Amino acid sequence: MSKGTLFDKVWDLHTVTTLLSGQTQLFIGLHLIHEVTSPQAFAMLRDRNLTVMFPERTVATVDHIVPTDSQARPFADSLAEEMIVALESNTKTNDIRFFNVGSGHQGIVHVIAPEQGLTQPGMTIACGDSHTSTHGAFGAIAFGIGTSQVRDVLASQTLSLDKLKVRRIEVNGTLAPGVYAKDVILHIIRTLGAKGGAGYAYEYAGSAIEAMSMEERMTLCNMSIEGGARCGYVNPDQITYDYLKGREFAPQGDAFEKAVVWWESLRSDTDADYDDVIVFDAQDIAPTVTWGISPDQAIGVDETIPNLASFSSEEQALIQEAYTYMDMGPGQPMLGTPIDVCFIGSCTNGRLSDLREAAKVAKGRHVASGIQAFVVSGSEQVKQQAEAEGLDKIFVEAGFEWREPGCSMCLAMNPDKLQGRQISASSSNRNFKGRQGSASGRTLLMSPAMVALAAINGQVSDVRSLL
Ligand SMILES: CC(C)[C@H](C(=O)O)[C@@H](O)C(=O)O
Ligand code: SF4
Question: What the protein does (predicted)?
């Protein structure tokens, strides 16, 4: 195996050819699809009389539009019902595995593929969804793609892509108590900017990353796209292999041991060349919250909203827009900001470890009056496991609503929506204007433990106050 980064190795191993345009035709090992970006792609295939080239390499689930209260069919929202019916029909016609609601395997696409062992080191993975970068946590090269590219992958199992540069982002040292992977990625994005990763794959490394569980690494890689990087990854290691072992679609028995040898060979070499290297100290990272309308508009929870003058002249218009939209201004502390709604869930932070951390905060306390607080598991499996541990009881006793799995209020393509100018404390990944279902709604991103504490106190609070 040649010297280089994992990105270079996986890219080269999946290169079919270099196209006349200079782009690479890249073979895609695993194609994940969901109800939002696949219907038109299937229609385009039908128009051209094409079939799906490798149905066994495509896996479908339904996540964005599923209601989280009653999931009885037909769904109350006729558009949602139409979308699930289309996916049921397209997957059946094309012989594609579909994890439907109630199958025990349904959930947010970026939660279910890893938990079932579909996501593996050294793979190329594509999905018509920007947060496909999540799967990089396993040392896979995973891209979000658009609908016409979903069509291309269905028809040819390949994509035409420009090769990315690789930036190594090291986080060294130990995270302080109360500081989570979510804070690490918000801190990275705050520092490098929401567009800072354009043209790059991010390789996350350093002792703080190596110490992270797979679920923490997924949170980190999930938001690479919010930092402008097309994908992000962590080199696979023993933590990766221990997570994968025994999962349904992971190699079994001897094949697993052989796979580990192979996966090890794909790790970035110690003398690999990077296009850029940036080093962070874990001790500099505090519980971080966003105050604005872009994920890089984030500060330590005990800081105050920055002044216009601290931004470059190109950035100032967006900062001004953020002050106005959020109705928050420079010098204002985030601590104590009143909130209306709390959302714990999403492909960033809707996994078991996230619910456990939030439940630790919720246990024996109660949601402040007037606050609506949702806990939405990332998948049916997460929900089942959480219930087996009694987390649902802790949340319900504390006044949280325990909902069915799905994307829910992360994007509000289902009935879970903010109303009017409501402000939410949310464990999701985007604080864009109108993101959570109300055109004028406001979103503060933070870790699940911080969301839970915000629900209890009715205002933005510092989780370190509980330590
Ligand atoms: C609906 C889908 C295309 C979209 C995405 O690509 O990310 C969604 O998942 C999101 O988070 O905004
Ligand atoms: S949970 Fe949110 S970010 Fe993730 S796929 Fe669903 S809508 Fe997109």
Answer: Catalyzes the isomerization between 2-isopropylmalate and 3-isopropylmalate, via the formation of 2-isopropylmaleate.
